[in-house]
Each structure stands twice: as structure tokens, then as C-alpha cells.
């Protein structure tokens, strides 16, 4: 990122500094990113204290300062809502009177629709939904963004710039955002689950946990880099590993028995159903 172009952002309030809030914050703190100000709130004082030494960041803990969220959004042009979906409605009700007209409120909460959020805010507020993922911590997120009904092109462009500080951005209609979440929002968890399973198989074959981690992590990283740098699709790259009548062919036959595509369809359908439950509140 040394040769990255400078990015200028307005004053940002990040409400919630859990896994996702801090992952996004890591992009905002990159040397080429210049936010006019960054305010971060969190419920616990301990988490806020972890961030309090960070240059350019003002932190507030709601358990110490009950008006922390209102203080943080006062004068901020971009408000990022990164609390649990069940808390979004209460949080918006808490801050609504402190938001200046023209503020962009971008929520990363799974399921909660722009219509729900807009119903709690004046029409002068632009509501955007975003669905990032945790590789944001290493600048490799994939983030879906969707405009609300009061969102101008410039608002969405600013949200795109914000999330480009942590990786790639894909704009989709909001009707597809929950589906996107089941793929890329949750996706890192599926990948880690596969890594855990292959690591366990390696340890069962007598490798030390350290050796197993080297073999498995290196294989996932190498395969991912091969895929993104290659013109071939993953099926062709898989065929190139699978020598006719060789060892891989036997392993793939066992995995094919498990019908992974059907399993991933069921898994992502279950995630989608949960997003709809979260939307209902
Ligand atoms: N973890 C992930 O991979 C992803 C999470 N998301 C969304 O991000 C949101 C946050 O998820 P996580 O970071 O995983 O949860 P988390 O539980 O790690 O973080 C939530 C944070 O919000 C803070 N908080 C709670 N009430 C607050 C309040 N009233 N004011 C300020 N801060 C408050 C909590 O102290 C906590 O640190 C969720 O809505 C989730 O759907 C979206 C994409 C990916
Ligand atoms: O599990 C969740 O609800 C959030 C949304 C996508 C990833 N984590």
C-alpha cells in the first residue's frame, strides 16, 4: 500500500468497535488515508481504552458516558453503525436529534433494511447499507454497498471510497445485499472451517500442529494467489492438480460424495433466512 493514492475523508463517527468496527478502522488508519476526524464509540470502557492512544482517534465508552454516541455523531458527516442488528433501532433513536442534515449513515448490520432505518430518521439523512468482511483487517475485504432511497450519487461514491480503504467494493441493489452477505460477509468463516478441518486431518496423519498449519495455511494462500493471478477458472486449476488415476482423484471422489454444492446452497439459504429474521427485528 506504499504507493497508494492519498484518500481524503470527512469526519467519521464509528458507533461500535467490535470485530467489524475495528476491521474498518484499520483501513481508516492507513498512512495514505486522511480523515478530518475519527470518533469511535463502544459499550465497554476496556475496548475504548485499547483504541484511546491511537493518533487522530477520539474514543468514547457508552458505559462511562451515556451520551457517547450523540457526542460522536455531532459534527460528523459520515456515521458508521457497527453494532449488532438488534441494537440498530435503539441506536438510531438515540442519535437522531444529533445528526446534521446531509449526514450519511452507513450501517453494516446484517438484515436491517434501509427502509427500517429511514423510518427512524429524517429524509435529509442519506442511509446506505454495506456488507464488508473481516479480511478488511489486511486490506482484502470484499464489501457490498447498496443505496437507500435518499442517497445521492456523491453519497454512495463517498461510501465506496470509505470501503475501498479496506479492499474491493461491489455495488448491488439492496434486494441482493442479504444474499451477498451469505457469500462474502459470512464467507471467511466457511474458509476458516475448511482450514480447521484440513488441519485436523493433517494432525491425525502425524504432523505437529505447527507443521499442519504451515502445510494448510500455505496451501490456501498459494491456491488463492494462483487463482487470482491465473486466467483459468477454479475447475481447470483443480483438474491440473488431479492427475488421471492419481491420488487427488481418489480424495475428490470422496468429497464429491458429500455433494458440496448442495451443502453450500443449504448453508447460504440458512444464512439468508436468518438475515430475514434479523430484518424483522
Ligand atoms: N463480524 C463480521 O464478520 C461482520 C459483521 N457485520 C455486522 O457488524 C455488526 C457488528 O458485528 P461484530 O463487530 O461482529 O459484533 P461485536 O459484538 O464484535 O461488536 C459490536 C460492538 O458494538 C458495541 N456496542 C454495543 N452497543 C453499543 C452502543 N449502544 N453504542 C456503541 N457501541 C455499542 C459493543 O461493545 C461491541 O464492541 C453487526 O451488525 C454485524 O451484522 C457485518 C459484516 C461482517
Ligand atoms: O454473522 C453475522 O451475522 C455477520 C454478518 C456477516 C458476517 N457476520
From TrEMBL:
Domain Pyrroline-5-carboxylate reductase catalytic N-terminal, chain residue ranges per copy: 11-111
Pfam families: F420_oxidored (PF03807), P5CR_dimer (PF14748)
A GO MF label: pyrroline-5-carboxylate reductase activity
UniProt KW NADP keyword: yes
Residues annotated as transmembrane: none
Boundaries of every Pyrroline-5-carboxylate reductase dimerisation domain copy: 174-278
Gene3D superfamilies associated with the record: NAD(P)-binding Rossmann-like Domain, ProC C-terminal domain-like
Record keywords, A-Z: Amino-acid biosynthesis, Cytoplasm, NADP, Oxidoreductase, Proline biosynthesis
Pathway assigned in UniProt: Amino-acid biosynthesis; L-proline biosynthesis; L-proline from L-glutamate 5-semialdehyde: step 1/1
SUPFAM superfamilies registered for this protein in UniProt: 6-phosphogluconate dehydrogenase C-terminal domain-like (SSF48179), NAD(P)-binding Rossmann-fold domains (SSF51735)
InterPro entries (UniProt xref): 6-PGluconate_DH-like_C_sf, NAD(P)-bd_dom_sf, P5C_Rdtase_cat_N, P5CR_dimer, Pyrroline-COOH_reductase
EC number: 1.5.1.2
Subcellular location: Cytoplasm
Catalytic activity: L-proline + NAD(+) = (S)-1-pyrroline-5-carboxylate + NADH + 2 H(+); L-proline + NADP(+) = (S)-1-pyrroline-5-carboxylate + NADPH + 2 H(+)
Record flagged with keyword Cytoplasm: yes
HAMAP family in the record: P5C_reductase
Function field: Catalyzes the reduction of 1-pyrroline-5-carboxylate (PCA) to L-proline.
Family, as annotated: Belongs to the pyrroline-5-carboxylate reductase family.
Protein name per its UniProtKB record: Pyrroline-5-carboxylate reductase
Source organism of this protein record: Leifsonia virtsii
Amino acid at each position: 500500500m506504499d504507493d497508494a493514492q492519498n484518500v481524503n475523508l470527512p469526519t467519521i463517527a464509528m458507533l461500535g468497535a467490535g470485530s467489524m468496527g475495528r476491521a474498518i478502522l484499520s483501513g481508516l488508519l492507513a498512512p495514505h488515508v486522511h480523515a478530518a476526524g475519527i470518533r469511535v464509540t463502544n459499550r465497554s470502557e476496556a475496548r475504548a481504552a485499547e483504541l484511546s492512544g491511537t493518533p487522530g482517534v477520539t474514543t468514547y465508552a457508552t458505559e462511562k458516558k451515556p451520551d457517547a454516541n450523540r457526542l460522536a455523531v455531532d459534527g460528523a458527516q459520515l456515521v458508521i453503525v457497527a453494532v449488532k442488528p438488534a441494537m440498530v433501532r435503539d441506536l438510531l433513536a438515540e442519535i437522531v436529534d444529533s445528526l446534521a442534515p446531509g449526514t450519511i449513515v452507513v450501517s453494516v448490520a446484517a438484515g436491517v433494511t434501509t427502509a427500517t432505518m429511514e423510518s427512524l430518521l429524517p429524509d435529509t439523512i442519506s442511509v446506505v447499507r454495506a456488507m464488508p468482511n473481516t479480511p478488511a483487517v489486511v486490506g482484502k475485504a470484499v464489501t457490498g454497498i447498496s443505496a437507500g432511497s435518499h442517497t445521492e450519487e456523491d453519497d454512495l461514491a463517498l461510501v465506496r471510497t470509505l470501503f475501498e480503504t479496506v479492499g474491493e467494493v461491489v455495488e448491488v441493489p439492496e434486494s441482493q445485499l442479504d444474499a451477498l452477505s451469505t457469500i462474502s460477509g459470512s464467507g471467511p468463516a466457511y474458509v476458516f472451517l475448511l482450514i480447521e478441518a484440513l488441519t485436523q486431518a493433517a494432525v491425525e496423519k502425524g504432523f505437529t500442529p505447527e507443521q499442519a498449519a504451515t502445510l494448510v495455511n500455505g496451501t490456501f494462500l498459494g491456491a488463492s494467489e494462483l487463482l487470482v493471478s491465473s486466467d483459468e477458472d477454479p475447475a481447470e486449476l483443480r483438474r491440473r492438480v488431479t492427475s488421471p488415476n492419481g491420488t487427488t482423484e481418489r480424495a475428490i471422489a470422496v468429497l464429491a460424495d458429500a455433494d458440496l454444492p448442495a451443502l453450500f446452497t443449504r448453508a447460504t439459504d440458512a444464512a439468508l433466512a436468518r438475515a430475514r429474521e434479523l430484518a424483522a427485528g
